[in-house]
Design a protein that fits this description.
This protein has 284 residues and is mostly beta strands. It has two domains: 172 residues, Immunoglobulin-like (Sandwich), CATH 2.60.40.1250; 98 residues, Immunoglobulin-like. Helices cover 7% and strands 46% of the residues. It contains two helices and 18 strands. The longest helix is centred in the first third of the chain and has 12 residues. The radius of gyration is 21 Å and the shape is globular.
Length: 284
């Protein structure tokens, strides 16, 4: 509660453009995956953050506190910017709180679409102001105006090799659709939401699984998520939020699966919530 009050005060008094000392906790630059753009073509840009150790920025649902980054674009006529492609987040635990976000390094990808009447041989300027909240014991709002210039060419040029590793890593960290062979089910118990995922193949007992709700006020973000792995099935128990509507029918979010000693993978899921079994609150 104290953190929320302090955060609100900061946002009220520090909503002006960020000062240089705020940037000491992170660095951000605007990069482009391509070397040029074509009429009716598209490019992917990335807002690449390097974050000071111990600090973090936020996912689209920040969890118990915080605010997701946002972008204000200034683009040439006819250009359109897509939505932020959110990488798989981390669960950042603090005393009595859990945030969803990113530490150390993260790249937010955004697709940019060009109009058909773009003239080859010209230069275009893509400008954006990105806004963020960076937190440790305290939270500090910041923003930075960024821009890049791209030549317009009739044919697509090679990708920008200078930033290839950054974009490759960013794409690797994007969530994927749930595999077609998986089946999902869930029910809403008096105190918990129970989710089951049948993967169609054996799941290692050492696998860790975390659920990130897409929206707030669905689960207690800081509560322990109970995990049971049984042959091909993953069972998760999530403590219900006190503000959860009794008639909620589905739970949307990100299921992050990480086998031991392997990289984590995120899957977008939308789980229908049925009535609880009559004999027990949790799956057997």
């Amino acid at each position: 509660m104290l953190r929320r009050i302090f955060l609100a005060a900061l946002l009220s008094f520090l909503a002006a453009p960020v000062f240089s000392q705020n940037l000491s906790h992170l660095k951000v630059e605007l990069l482009c995956e391509q070397n040029s753009i074509q009429p009716s073509g598209s490019v992917t840009v990335g807002f690449h953050f390097i974050i000071q150790k111990g600090w973090h920025v936020y996912w689209q649902n920040p969890g118990d506190s915080g605010q997701a980054p946002s972008i204000t674009w200034t683009l040439p006529d006819g250009f359109t910017a897509g939505e932020i492609l959110w990488p798989v987040p981390e669960r950042i635990t603090l005393p009595s709180l859990a945030d969803y976000g990113y530490t150390r390094e993260v790249t937010f990808l955004v697709p940019i679409q060009a109009p058909a009447d773009l003239k080859a041989g010209h230069m275009v300027r893509l400008s954006a102001t990105i806004h963020w909240l960076v937190c440790q014991e305290i939270c500090i709002p910041g923003n930075k105006a960024l821009n890049l210039r791209l030549p317009v060419r009739k044919k697509q040029s090679p990708y920008n090799s200078r930033y290839a590793s950054i974009f490759k890593s960013a794409r690797k960290n994007l969530p994927a659709p749930l595999p077609e062979e998986w089946s999902v089910s869930g029910f809403l118990g008096p105190k918990e939401i129970h989710l089951s995922f049948d993967t169609g193949a054996p799941v290692a007992k050492t696998t860790t699984v975390t659920f990130f709700p897409l929206h707030g006020n669905l689960i207690h973000d800081s509560a322990k998520q109970t995990l049971e792995v049984s042959e091909n099935t993953i069972h998760l128990g999530l403590k219900r939020s006190d503000q959860l509507s009794a008639d909620v029918k589905t739970l949307e979010g990100l299921l992050v699966v990480q086998p031991k000693n392997l990289g984590k993978k995120g899957y977008w899921v939308k789980v229908p919530l049925d009535n609880p079994p009559s004999a027990a609150e949790s799956p057997q």
